[in-house]
Amino acid sequence: MNDIFALEAHEKMSKTIESLHSTLATLRTGRASVAVLDRVEVDYYGEKTPIYQISSISTPEPTQLLIKPYDRNDMKAILAALNASDLGINPINDGTSIRLVFPAPTEERRKELAKSAKKFCEDAKVAVRNIRRDVNNAIKKDDSLSEDEVRRSEESVQKVTDEITKHIDEIAKEKESEIMRV
């Protein structure tokens, strides 16, 4: 019976890690990544639309992104969205496409990014602990379990929690070293 609770906890906690990976991908490291534009939304005929849905995005060079709108009339809206975003990069409009040149971040900026990465990882740990609490509450409410089974189930859920938390720490360390690399 205890495996069911541990599996449920592991499944939910794995989704937290997937979410953490996608969130960390939006942080700028020094190399251009299409993922940094995931949070940029364009006012597309009155609707907020992700930039990747109305344009093709490529990386012609390691420090550059090239955005080609499917419709040239969307250039102004895309430029406005990029200028309003928190990227801190001035888009270069060459008439048919938009270039984003990513300079190497300063040491101060890298420290800020590393701090943001740590915060995202801490938020993921909080989510994991909340999942553990919810699963443990479900274990305690299950009347079909004896006291020993409840204790074993809680221990197995704690093992899963420790494993996932350790994995989050490894992800944080890896991302921080990636950010701090010049």
Give the SSE layout.
Elements lengths: L1 H24 L15 E4 L2 E4 L4 E7 L2 E6 L5 H10 L7 E2 L4 E4 L5 H35 L5 H34 L2
Antiparallel strand pairs: 1-2, 3-4, 4-6, 5-6
Tell me what you see in this structure.
- This protein has two domains: 2-26 and 106-180, Ribosome-recycling factor (Topoisomerase I, Chain A, domain 4), CATH 1.10.132; 34-101, 2-Layer Sandwich (Gyrase A, domain 2).
- Helix content is 57%, strand content 15%.
- The longest helix is centred in the C-terminal third of the chain and has 35 residues, at 107-141.
- The protein is elongated and about 70 Å long.
- The chain has helices at 2-25, 75-84, 107-141, 147-180, and strands at residues 41-44, 47-50, 55-61, 64-69, 92-93, 98-101.
- The mean pLDDT is 88.
- A four-stranded antiparallel sheet has the order 3-4-6-5, with helices on one face. A two-stranded antiparallel ribbon has the order 1-2.
Key features?
single chain; 182 residues; alpha+beta; Topoisomerase I, Chain A, domain 4; Gyrase A, domain 2; 4-stranded antiparallel β-sheet; 15% strand
Biggest sheet overview:
4 strands, antiparallel
CATH architecture of the largest domain: Orthogonal Bundle
The CATH superfamily of the largest domain appears as Ribosome-recycling factor
Instruction: Report the end-to-end length measured between terminal Cα atoms.
Output: 50 Å
Number of structural units classed as domains: 2
The top-level CATH class of the largest domain is Mainly Alpha
In the sheet with the most strands, the strands line up as 3-4-6-5
Number of helices in the DSSP assignment: 4
Query: What sequence of helices (H) and strands (E) makes up the elements?
Result: HEEEEHEEHH
Which segments are poorly predicted (pLDDT under 50) over 5 or more consecutive residues? none
User: What's the β-strand tally?
Assistant: 6
Helix/sheet category: alpha+beta
